[in-house]
Structures are given as C-alpha cells and as structure tokens.
Amino acid sequence: MADKSWQQVRKIFDEALRRQPEERRRFVNEVCSGDKTLLAEIESLLSSLDSAESFMETPAAAKFAGAIEAEQKKLKQGKCFGHYEIIEQIGAGGMGEVYLALDVKLNRRVALKVLPENLSAETEANQRLLREAQAAATLDHPHICAIYEIAEADDYSFIVMQYVEGETLAEKLGKEKLSIQKSLDLAIQIADALAEAHAHHIIHRDIKPANVIVSGKGQAKVLDFGLAKFVQVESKVEKAQFLSKPGAIMGTVPYMSPEQVCGTTLDARSDIFSFGAMLYEMLSGRQPFSRENNAETISAILNDEPRWTEIPAKFQLIIKKSLKKNRDERYQKTEDLARDLRELQHNGAIQIVTDSRFWNADTAAVPKASTKSISPTITRQIKDWRSFRLPILAGLIFIVVLAGFGYGLYRLIGTDKSPATFSMSDVTRLTSTGNTRVAAVSPDGKFVAHVQQSAENQSLWLRQIGAEGETQIIAPANIEIRAVNFSPDGNLIYYIIGKTSFRGTLFQTSTLGGQPKKILDNIYLANLGVNGIGFAPGGKQIAFVRLSPPPNEISFLMIADVDGANERTVISYKRPDLLFGTPAWSPDGETIVCPFQNKAGMNAMAIGVADVSSAAPILPVELNAVSQIVWLPDGQNLLMVAEDDTETVLNQIYQVAFAGGGRRRINKDFNSYESVSLTADGRNLIALRTEQTAHLWTMPAGDAGLLKQLTGGFEKYDGINGLGWLPDGKIFYESLPGGKQTILQIDPDGGGGKLMATGGGYGSASPDGRFLVYQKSGVKENRLVRGLFLFDTIDGGERQLTTGWDVWATFSPDGKTINFIRWGEDAEMATLRSVPQEGGEPVRLTKFLAITAAVSPDGKSIAVGRWNGAKTQIVVVSANGGEPSKTFDVDFNIQDSFGKRAIQWTPDGRAINFIRESKGVSNIWRQSVNGGDPLQVTNFISDLIFNFAFSPDGQQLALSRGTINSDIILISNPK
C-alpha cells in the first residue's frame, strides 16, 4: 500500500476509534462513501479489533494498522541502530517488534523493542510511552527484565532491554503441565517482581504468561515493564501526574481485571487480579475466564466465578482473594500476596484473615452446623435424658470425686513422667511488613508488642491478636530497640535501647502509651540474639546481665526490683566464661537460666537464686549458639533458640528438658528464629522468623548494567558466609543446602557447578586453589569440638589446625600463613590471630576487638574491621600485628553474630572495599589508605549485599545479594 493511501487509512481508523462502537460504522460509511477499497480496508481493521487478543491505549492503539505497516518494513539482519546491530527478530507485539541485537560497544547481546513508525513520531502517545519506559527503567530487581536505554535512530524509536535466554511461561504451559512446586516457585518470583514495581508506584497492566520468560535455570523474568505506568499517589506537596490517560484500555483480555475492561482508573490491585488469573492457569492448565470470544470473556471477568475443582485446595484461598471482582476485597499489597505464597511454600498450608476468622485451605473452612438442624434421633435422646437424669447426676458426682482422687494421686507419685510437648502444628503470620525486629506477646495472649524498622528509624507498636489495627507506643526515632517484655500483669511494656557499645538502658511505659520511664542503665547487650530481662513469678523483681568494661570483663547476673531499686549480684563470671542474653526465671522462682558461653561453646547455665553453688550447665553437649531461653509453665521444660551444627547453623527453636538437657527441634524449616515469647498458659508462642534470600551475581567492576545472576531456586544462603575467586577464574562459595554448611564452586557464567567440601564454613581458598580453610564443629567424646580445618582439594585429606571458636580464616598472599578471628576467649571478645598453614600454635596479633580482617596484596599489612564504642572502624596493622597505624571511621556493615569478612583490598593495595547499607539498600564503598572520604563503588537501588569478592585483577565482582524479611509468627499449641 502506498504511503499516501496508508496515511489516509490510518487517519480514518484513528478517528473511528475515538467514537462509540455504535457510531463507528456510520462514520466510516460517510467518510469512505464512493471508495469501496478504502471502506474494505477500514472495515477489515475494525473487525480485527473484536477478535484481537490484546488492547493498547486508544487513540494510540492503531496497533493493528501499525502491524501491517511494520510487516512491510521488517528490519533485516546486520542493520545498525547506533551501536546496536540487528541479529534476528525474536518476537512481535502490539507496541512493536522485538529483535535480538549486539551491543557492539559493550560486546553484549540485548533485546531491542523497535516501535512502529506510526508511534515513533513526536506524538503525545509516543511521549507518554517513552516517559513510562523511563520510569520503568528505574526498577532494579532480579526478576524484572532490565531496561538499559531508550533511543531513536533512522526515524525509529526503540527500547534497549536485557536479553534473557529461555522460553516464555506461555510456551512452557503450552508444552507441559508444571508441577505444583515449580508453579509455586515461579509464582513467588513473579510476585516479588510486581511487589518491587508497585513499591515504586509502577504497575504493569499486562501481566500474562507471554510476558514472563523462564530461563534454563528456572528463573522468571517479567517483561514489558516499558508499557507500565505510574500509579497516582498522594503527597503533601503534589499528586504524581498520570502518565497514561484514564479511560484508556490496555492488557490482554483473558487476564484483564474488571477495572481494566471497564476502562476505569487502575492501581496495583489490577496487576494482582491478572497475577491471580495467571496462577490459576499455571495450576489448572486453563484460563479462568476464557470463553468463545472477547465479549463473552469480558462478561465472565465481570460476572462469573472460575471452576475451583481444578485448583489444589491449598492455593484456592490465595487465588480467590486475588480474583475478587471488587478490588477492595483483593490483596491490597502485593507483598502480602507474596508472603502468603511463601507461607504456603514453607508450611504447606496458609491462613488468611477474612471477616476476623482464620480460614484454612486444607479444611475449606466448613462452618459449624446450626442447632436448627438437630436430627429427630438427638431430639428423642434429649427427651429420654429427662426421665433418668437424677441417677446419671449421681453417677457423674461419683466419677468427678474419683477423678479428683486420681489426679491427686498422680500429682503425689507422678505416675506419668512424660513431659509436655510443644509443636508448630498451627502457625499464623501476624505481621507482613518484613521489617519487624523484636517482639513479645502479652501474658494473656491478646497483644503483641513489636518493633518496626523504617529506613534508619525504629518505632514500637502494640497489636491486638485477631483484630485489625495497631497502636503506636513509641514514635519513629533514630534508636535501636534491642528487647521488649510485657510485665506479668500485662499492663506495662519494658524495652531496652542501645547500639553496638554493648551497653543498653531499660525503659518502662504503659501499654496505653505515655511518657517512658527510665529504669536501669548498663544492661549488657550481647551482639548474639535477643537481649532482655526476666521477670520473677509475681512480677516484683527482674533479672538481667551486666558486663564490666575491658580489659577485665566480668559478667554479672543481677536482680533488681521492677522499678530499678535494690540491685544485687547473684553470680559473676570472668572471660572466657560469660553470661549474656535474656535470663529466664523458673515458674517456682528458685532458678534462673541464662545463656552462657566459654571456650567449649554455648550452653544454658542454671543458677539457684538462693544458692549459686549448684550452678551448672543444662545441656550435656554445647551448641553453636544459645541466644534466648523461655520456661514452659510445667517448670520441667524450656524453649531455647540455638544453633545445632549437627542439624543446621541457623537459629532454630528447641524444646529442652531442664533435667538431663534432652532436646527436640520444634520447627522443621530452614529459616532463622529469634525473639521468642510465650503466653502465661504456655499455649501460644510468638517468634520472629527471618527469611533471608541470597544468591550469587557477577558483574564487570563498576557496570551494574551487566549484572548476571548465577544461582537461584530454593537454596537461598549462597555466598553469605564464604565467597571468593579461584586461580582458574571459577568462584567458590558457601551455601546451606538442607541447612548444612557446604562449599561449592561455579563458573562466572553460572555453569560448571561442583561440590568442593561439606561441613565447614566461614573460610577461604589458598592463592593456588589447592586448599580450603574453614571453621568446623563436631561432637567428640560427648563434647563439642570446633576449630579451623584445612582441606586438600586434590587428595581430599582434612586436618585440624586450631581448636577454638575461629572464623573468617584467610590466607596470606604467599599461602604460608592463615589469619582468622577467634571469638569468646579474650577480654576483647574477639581478636585477630594467625597460624602457619603447616600447623602450629596460633599467634595473637591484636589486643583490641577485631571482627573481620583482610591481608593486603603485598602481605605486609592487615585491614581489620572493629567496633570502637558505638562506631565501626577499619584500621590497618602490620602483618605481624600490633597497634593500628591508620584508623578510618567508616560506617560499614556488621551483619551477623560473627561480623563479616566483607572487606577487601584493591589489587594495587591503595584502598579497602567494604559494604555500607543505607535505607535498606547495600552498596560497596572504597576507603583510600591515604585518607579522605570513602567513595561509592556500586550504585544499586534495591536489595542487600551480604558478601562480595573482586577478582584478583579487580575487573570482575562477585556478589552475594538478596533480601531479609523478618515478621512475627504465632504458634498455637492447644495441648
């Protein structure tokens, strides 16, 4: 068709689209009167509108005409747009065609979405599209296809996107039925991508399987965020401008939300509806509302319910809530949807609050029968009861008396010695922000007090269990709340404020709010786990731990009145023996159990309040970490948060027998738990569950645009506790498959995965790649033995180098010496030491607190990360040890109990790289050894960096990167 004729067709078609459907035919007949060819062309385009799968915005939606014109001008292989060279066409859509291209400047493959020429002019539609694509390009998420650039060349506008190898979800569904586990895994990834976009006030508007690509490793990427739009949000200053016109229709019919098909204003809940339709299809193999034609499909979206018999019961509540016709009844936040999917993944069952009741997908929430439906048989039995009720009552009285006698006899001789048991059979998530830090449940089980983190601020909230809404007790402030406790009567909340100086202040406030009251100073805040106070039975006294300053650190178990008066010392221990954490007062008031550590490991020390001479550890074998203890009401069992290296190095909840120390793990997943708190009757436990997800990524140094994900899936602790480069260019890293410490290697492109060693962590590889050194624990002669082990990757031999709590081992550049951090032995709590690779007695290098270290490339200096009061510093010492020669006050991350070996010298030895977090986002910074302010190296706008390693030449960067979400769960135990 000649350009002039085509312009006439396009103009008439656009004008027709601006009119109501009943007016279009009359308009077209009038305009095309006498020109049968022109009339046929327009009618053909209008007919295609009724059967088209997708709608774009009108009046810019002359996409059908644009597709015809684009077909005439299909781009050929070898054509160049600036520095992009076309390789082949890989897709087409209403807003243009997609080509695989080579970025010749950066030598990488990209995807080009080339817009039709009718949208490449200086039109309002084009300007809206470009602004929306620019907005979407700000998104940085592992499951969102990145947009690199928006440009124009040769009268074409095009968007440069990340090229992802794989097949679309639509293609996968067309070939196979996905397993439930695979569907759930992909659904969580997609939901996370949408949550990220929605957090930036961007909605997609065309969520469907064709817009999700699945890589060979099972990683989902959501495509076409360039077609997204900003959501209108309220601001104190202004309202964000709509980048798309209200009333415009966009999306793919079978996946459209009711508000989309009605052309009303959209928000994030529209994407949630589309997501629900897509998840339905993933699980059932069919679209929930698809009918014979678009008109019937739209009617079904507005009026019909899907067929639920095809959907697994555990998914039904999530999908039903996503597909509510009224968007106010849907999930209001995609984060909540994603968290329910994760809850389903972890526990195999979910609980969603609906009408103030808990509904369980497994039981289908069948309501209780009404008394109006009592059968005639039961009615007859009730009548019969009246005729002989007196004899029965007499018999019942006899039975009650006999039962009372039997119970007294049981209490007297204890015929049933079986202990009470606690389980996680009934779990409910109480918060869904992902930003909860510590929490406590009230003694009556009606309320939860919890701390919320927002950017650099924390606030304290009171939440009623089973009801909506919260009350703010402490307004957001730049503080760190390290512990929360209810008073035994539930009327007061006690909380401790303190930072990393190991000293905290106890405050008291009413559950109704009001002015806080200072109670005590100088409460020991160990960096391990939760710190707090323990109430005596009756609530008139509290127990807490205090630590004297270095160099002669002594820990004291203290008792005081609840108002802070009448302090007295119960018992004291000098390092390396140390009390810490939250003391737990037994129900009979006679014993206080407190977390305790020494050279052997961590335990729970039972201390008699009146007679401390009988103080003794409870556990027969020390654990890797005991951080919190709570008594069960029977006085014979405790709940304990700890790590057991024989099971997992994550904080887990154990039930421990007070007599004998026998223990049983309560939770069965591989998340981390802390901040446990129990109701007075022992039937309900709240805990802070932390879900950390970390995978490996690589990128050229300084170019996040080429960020590449190497690992994914269900193993979610990749690289956190160990990451580095081998001489052959491969990457070694630690992960926790099944909760077990394992060291693996992988190629920089994500291939060649290989197991290297099991059972060790917090280590590194020798410069020649032959040896691995790592910390390892085990039980020998009924004692916990731990230390550094050297593993030969050639012959598979392993030998022990040290005995102690030794972590973050690293080789000197010549491979002859191994430096490491030893915890818990000295007054400084942690010190830098070294040991010859061949073995020998370790040498202490520092007298100050050291939490992480890295050797300079020339082997002459060591950079040491440390706390100094409430500040973090990087200092430089000689390789032979001694006092610091240089000190830099830098704000760097200390992300777990043992710090992180996440500092590294640059290859030239002129600067030190470290991780810094700000407002929930991590980046790598660089401190010159010559002084001056540190410089930012990476520029991520989302997620956390847990560990990193530059390649020996400094050209490549490996990252352990992901998220941490912490929320409160309620564990009900009615037995």
Q: Describe it for me?
A:
The protein is of the alpha+beta class and 975 residues long. It has 5 domains: 1-51; 73-163, Phosphorylase Kinase, domain 1; 170-225 and 236-360, Orthogonal Bundle (Transferase(Phosphotransferase), domain 1), CATH 1.10.510.10; 436-690, TolB, C-terminal domain (Neuraminidase); 715-964, TolB, C-terminal domain (Neuraminidase, 6 Propeller), CATH 2.120.10.30. Helix content is 19%, strand content 37%. The chain is built from 14 helices and 62 strands. The strands form 16 sheets. It has a 6-stranded antiparallel sheet with strand order 2-3-4-5-7-6. Strands 16, 38, 39, 40, 61 and 62 form a 6-stranded antiparallel sheet that branches. The chain is globular, with a radius of gyration of 33 Å. The model is unreliable at 48-72, 232-249 and 349-418 (pLDDT under 50).
